[in-house]
Design a protein that fits this description.
The chain is an alpha/beta fold and 266 residues long. The protein is 42% helix and 17% strand. The protein has 2 domains: 5-92 and 206-258, Rossmann fold, CATH 3.40.50; 94-204, Rossmann fold. Bound molecules: D-glutamic acid. Residues 9-11, 13, 39-42, 72-74, 114, 117, 145, 182-184 line the site of D-glutamic acid (DGL).
Length: 266
């Protein structure tokens, strides 16, 4: 039986990974769940993030996924807590991105992420394990993911906040590589490019999609034939998902649906 891949995020951000997945493995069926009712996760406690994420993983488990992608940097900083809790592999986004940066040979870079991701320090710690001399400028954003999740893809407020963060990063020192380490940010990549086209914006979603493809290949579960479909569910407003998916060029999707996610307790 052909099983789908589950993709979860606090909101619409993980659709950036779905777009890369469709390019790299067009045969796969994808079940997407975004918890927009509770977005942003980036300003919550670790315990709240853990319980909300387990509820999402249970949702995709009921749909018999063969693997789940945590298409969210914030949740990925605690991904080890999900090990052994589910009958399928759970793939995070930070590890493949750190691999990529390491191979790029970058000696200095900026991480733009939610406040929780910055506080957890996973990128910096993992990068230092491989490249002790690397210089990392961290920049946390309290509001950018929330604005994007509301569908503000080209508003003045979104533009102003991106400009504020780019200026703040440049104030820390000269830097070329900027990791868009919140999956919501690549949805407004044009704003970053309008404000400063000279910088190299790294989109971790592509690295995660590559890692998933490699893992499915190794497990002999990669769907090589046909064209897969995308089902999108959210605990919030479904219309914004359609708008984001269309902007990202996602194909073969059914109409996004609002659902209730069952609360998870331990
Ligand atoms: N998309 C999520 C990430 O990659 C975070 C947005 C949020 O704060 O919920 O970090």
């Amino acid at each position: 039986m052909k099983k789908p891949i589950g993709v979860i995020d606090s909101g619409i951000g993980g659709l950036t990974i779905v777009a890369s997945m469709q390019k790299l493995m067009p045969g796969e069926d994808i079940i997407y769940l975004g918890d927009s009712k509770n977005v942003p996760y980036g300003n919550k406690s670790e315990e709240d993030i853990y319980l909300l994420t387990m509820a999402m993983l249970k949702f995709v488990e009921e749909r018999e996924v063969k693997l789940a992608a945590i298409a969210c940097n914030t949740i990925s900083t605690i991904h080890k807590r999900f090990n052994g809790k589910l009958p399928f592999p759970v793939v995070d986004i930070v590890t493949p991105t750190v691999d990529h940066i390491d191979k790029m040979g970058a000696e200095r870079l900026a991480i733009l992420a939610t406040e929780f991701t910055v506080k957890m320090g996973s990128y910096e710690r993992m990068l230092r394990e491989r490249r002790p001399g690397i210089e990392v400028f961290n920049e946390g954003s309290r509001d950018l993911a929330t604005l994007i999740d509301r569908g503000e893809f080209d508003s003045q407020a979104t533009y102003d906040i991106v400009k504020h963060h780019l200026n703040s990063i440049k104030g820390k020192g000269e830097v070329y590589n900027i990791v868009l380490a919140c999956t919501h940010y690549p949805i407004v990549e044009e704003i970053f490019l309008d404000i400063d086209p000279s910088l190299n914006y790294i989109n971790p979603g592509f690295q995660q999609a590559k890692a998933i493809r490699a893992q499915l290949h190794d497990m002999e579960l990669l769907q090589r034939d046909g064209l897969g479909s995308v089902e999108i569910y959210t605990s919030g407003e479904a219309g914004i998902y359609r708008k984001a998916a269309e902007k990202l060029g996602i194909k073969r999707m059914s109409e996004p649906k609002t659902v209730a996610i069952k609360e998870y307790t331990e």
